[in-house]
Amino acid sequence: MKDLKLAVIYYSATGTNYQLAQWAAEAAKNNGVGEVKVLKVKELAPEQAIAENKDWKKHVEATKNVPEVSLDDLEWADAIIFSTPTRYGNLPSQLQQFIDTTGGLWFSGKLANKVVSAMTSASNPHGGQETTLMSLYKTMHHWGAIIAAPGYTDKAIFEGGGNPYGVSVTAGEDLKDTTKNAVAHQVKRTLQIGGWVKKGLSE
Amino acid sequence: MKDLKLAVIYYSATGTNYQLAQWAAEAAKNNGVGEVKVLKVKELAPEQAIAENKDWKKHVEATKNVPEVSLDDLEWADAIIFSTPTRYGNLPSQLQQFIDTTGGLWFSGKLANKVVSAMTSASNPHGGQETTLMSLYKTMHHWGAIIAAPGYTDKAIFEGGGNPYGVSVTAGEDLKDTTKNAVAHQVKRTLQIGGWVKKGLSE
Amino acid sequence: MKDLKLAVIYYSATGTNYQLAQWAAEAAKNNGVGEVKVLKVKELAPEQAIAENKDWKKHVEATKNVPEVSLDDLEWADAIIFSTPTRYGNLPSQLQQFIDTTGGLWFSGKLANKVVSAMTSASNPHGGQETTLMSLYKTMHHWGAIIAAPGYTDKAIFEGGGNPYGVSVTAGEDLKDTTKNAVAHQVKRTLQIGGWVKKGLSE
Amino acid sequence: MKDLKLAVIYYSATGTNYQLAQWAAEAAKNNGVGEVKVLKVKELAPEQAIAENKDWKKHVEATKNVPEVSLDDLEWADAIIFSTPTRYGNLPSQLQQFIDTTGGLWFSGKLANKVVSAMTSASNPHGGQETTLMSLYKTMHHWGAIIAAPGYTDKAIFEGGGNPYGVSVTAGEDLKDTTKNAVAHQVKRTLQIGGWVKKGLSE
């Protein structure tokens, strides 16, 4: 795992998925990942919309130094963890927009065999957490990525809400230690499978 | 709504979805439905499997007088509310088996324009509640049914867990008043849309 | 149906979904719809990306006078038909971006009871046509919209590819009469259910 | 790959998915798989229903010597390829019933890290091929399986219908060489990833 490269790609308006992404990066380091990058997708919302929402504005400012994800980052990564809020059961346009620009990489086969899992949040306990992850995983199938969903491969998943597709939370609630533990397990699993795949690809 | 016929079709191993079905029937009566039938799908599990699980056995005995749903019931109903546990994000084979027998009705167009919504349960808070409802709604599209998911059309939905696809619960936890209220709203909405469709079809 | 208002909302890069949208509007008029508007979602792609793709540029110019959809249009419409290409099994960011701006309407309950169906295209025969429609319908459940998928309610659906979720085509192939007929049936059905719902809501 | 064990698990009423399963086994042998078993799921339909359908009866008789899949086979396999017709966008109850019996294996963690992909058929060109594979893959996430969907990792996928989730066909049409080639690629890819995972697990 020492040479594995992990991209944690997130979109966050008010900080929930940024926190999940931070925890993912921390867990990756604890697992001895080679390199890890935390990367935000480009904001599309007009400045005025952001300015009218105090929490959104505050978060944008607080993360202004987080680098924006590029196509090069996708090519660079062996494994990817996405973290994204729902938008009515689908991905936010900010993340979708980034995904829409990957046609060139896709066409040249450079997205195949990325090992991927994802985390999410919604405003309600059952507000699209499961369906949003399903939407992202559909796209991963198109890429030829290898999905490393956590399933129920550790008790941390049960304790963190029991979402087998990926860690999910209710936005606005305090993020708990049980969530952090579930993130840690999901990351560990993604890296482990990523390591197997990377080794296989190199032989 | 006074001439509207509602079928509440459920599968339940240990009682959660039976309780939801009962609440749905009660709500339907409170809304002045014409007729309502609570109907279970046929059990497929071998007797031995049931006998080995005390709660399952108890529930089977407690509901032995609930009529099994037939194809005639489907034809009879103007509106249908399903209640079903998840099986790894999909429908239990007991319910799927019933659905698999509807080919003749489907072919003759008799399933079109049924107004439908669904409720569900899983063992974990995020254990397939959303994805199971999505699986059932896929089938409803094939039928030409009209899906009356609750969305967020009443505050009872937010208070009952905020699942816009249908009421969902964690099995084994106490079913709460907020859940019962959410069921009542979902039923009211399904009947209302069912009434509009029935009236439209009769003109 | 004479007072029913239909919005045909589409995104199209090179014309396939624009054609489907045109056919939908034509069918709506043939069915005596009250009013119909064909509306495009705002383009997000940078001008350079468009300029580098001859077909895309040509289509943008050819449709420069088609009005862009606004939130007022959503509020105005009784029924909505979406037409959109896939992006790896999900919605293009252009359409997602428009959907992401509907929070205010959603919160005030103004998206509930819209009667909706959708059409789609992909580059391959099985390139996400079904999954893209499922993604859009998930969002419709969140809105509290009423989905009027065609199912198999007319032989035109079988002849047009047999997609029960909505008309779908392979982009780049000639659009056929059988497709046009399937669009006509889907529109007729959406308007019919839209009429029932509108009447019900007014009583 | 020489020690890799592959289970090809299928349900077939009239032979389409049996043919796909046979092709998968042939491809696995051509790729030097260690062992491969072609296994059918138990039929649930009553004898009378089968007797009334000449093609179904003929197929049941023709495959009476194909062994039925058991839980031991699941435990034995390193990789699994499923082949199944759609039932209104979901799995047939026959396959669902088998899946429903895996709770014990799941609970003891023995389904985790199986490398899985799937193939399907429907009566119409867009009759649930994509959504059926999505339903099965949801279950695989619950298992903690690793999904090796083909994506667009070879031109055989484009030529075989371009379904990135898995090979899919229209039942009743002649199965083509392009389909066989797509099956061969999907199998090769599943085995390759299966080999990487098996090696990783053994270290």
Automatic annotation (TrEMBL), chains A, B, C, D:
It holds the Pfam family FMN_red. Residues 6-191 form the Flavodoxin-like domain. One of its GO terms (molecular function) is FMN binding. InterPro entries: Flavodoxin/NO_synth, Flavoprotein-like_sf, Flavoprotein_WrbA-like, FMN_Rdtase-like_dom. One of its GO terms (cellular component) is membrane. NCBIfam families: flav_wrbA, PRK03767.1. Belongs to the WrbA family. PANTHER family: FLAVODOXIN-RELATED PROTEIN WRBA-RELATED, FLAVOPROTEIN-LIKE PROTEIN YCP4-RELATED. This is NAD(P)H dehydrogenase (Quinone). It comes from Salinimicrobium marinum.
